[in-house]
Amino acid sequence: MEFLEVPLIIFLAVVLPIAIIFHYATEMKKAKGLSAQDEATLDELRRLSEKLEDRTTTLERILDDEVPDWRSRRHETL
């Protein structure tokens, strides 16, 4: 029985913890970067925010032409 216990103890005390550490170190390296899906989502969100910014600028320009003092009126109602 002793012959099997010593390698088992060595395996559990040395080899297994090292294997676990290397496994999680590899997983952390993989998780550091963005996935392709994350990058695609961020790119889509950037495009949407640019569209919204353009729309806001256009609306403000229209309001400036139609109602010149709309900005000061809004501050007065707050």
Please, could you describe this protein's structure?
With 78 residues, the chain is an all-alpha fold. The protein folds into 2 domains: 1-33; 35-78. It is built from 3 helices and no strands. It is rod-shaped. It starts with a helix and ends with a helix. The relative contact order is 0.05. The model has no long low-confidence stretch (mean pLDDT 88).
What does this entry show, briefly?
The protein is mostly helical and 78 residues long. The protein has two domains: 33 residues; 44 residues.
Topology (SSEs and partners):
Layout lengths: L1 H31 L3 H31 L3 H8 L1
InterPro entries: Phageshock_PspB
Pfam families: PspB
Organism: Iodidimonas gelatinilytica
| Main sheet makeup | none
Q: How many strand segments?
A: 0
Secondary-structure-based class equals: mainly alpha
Number of helices: 3
Order of helices and strands: HHH
Question: Which tags fit this structure?
Answer:
3 helices, mainly alpha, 2 domains, 78 residues, rod-shaped
